[in-house]
Amino acid sequence: MSRRKLFSVLPAGCLGCATAARCDAQAGGPAPAHSSTEKADMTWEDVFRFAFEKDLVPVLKGLAAEIGREKFVRMLQDVVGGIAEQKMAKSPIPKRDFATFTGNLRQLPPIMQHALQYEVLEDSPQALEYRVTKCLWAKSFLEGGAGDIGYAMVCHPDFAVAAGFNPKLKLTREKTLMQGGDCCHFRYTMET
Fold first, then answer.
1. 156 backbone dihedrals φ, ψ, rounded to 5°
2. What are the helix (H) ranges across 91-155?
3. What ranges do the domains of the chain cover?
4. Spatial distance between the Cα atoms of 156 and 77, rounded to a whole number of angstroms
5. Cα angle: 138, vertex 144, 150; to 5 degrees
6. Which of 140, 142, 164 is nearest to 53 (CA)?
7. Which fold does the domain 44-190 belong to in CATH?
8. How far apart are CA 146 and CA 16, in angstroms?
9. Side-chain-facing half-sphere of 96: CA atoms under 13 Å
10. Residue 187, by phi and psi: left (phi above 0), alpha (psi -120 to 50) or beta?
11. Tens digit of pLDDT at every position of the chain (192 positions)
């Protein structure tokens, strides 16, 4: 792969590359210092487009073409699912009951709050059921022609997270946006 091609697929600009000197020269001197903590003028959708559609999805599709799409998708499911289950099993959660799990789902981190639109269908001590009607992960992977890869990487691990939290926690989900459904329909229950 040529250097030009390599830099066209890398997610960042100069990163100290040989063209950094040209960037400085074109700007008339050294570039101003920027902080990685500065706020960016981007919507959440822009962030997802930048993070997934621009680089990650094409790279994953390229790997799938090299390995074989079916094999690659299975590998992603196994590896990402295994990592998700192990991380959840090892996380320092003092109580691994249904109320703790569903309580965590009710307090989604900001990225989840902005990436998903959902409605709760049932929230009881026996079940948490909700429907996701908009998902920026699904939008990004589907627009990149990689819904199957996105499902393996983003959606399939939900089952492993449940198992890692508590082997009695069950997720039922028959459709997802990533697989072309009109929604993602989640139902969590705990076996007794």
1. -55, -35
2. 98-106, 110-115, 136-143, 147-150
3. 44-190
4. 6
5. 40
6. 140
7. Muramoyl-pentapeptide Carboxypeptidase; domain 2 (3.30.1380)
8. 32
9. 16
10. beta
11. 333 333 344 444 334 444 444 444 445 555 567 778 888 888 989 888 888 888 899 999 999 999 999 999 999 999 999 999 999 999 999 999 999 999 988 888 888 899 999 999 999 999 999 999 999 999 999 999 999 999 999 999 999 999 999 999 999 999 999 999 999 999 999 998
Tokens standing for 85? 């289950």
Which three-class secondary structure state does DSSP give residue 27?
A: helix
Cα dist from 23 to 18, 27, 31, whole Å: 10, 6, 8
Residue whose tokens read 């959902």: 118
> The whole model's pTM is what?
0.78
Our CA angle for 59, 61, 67, nearest 5°, is: 105
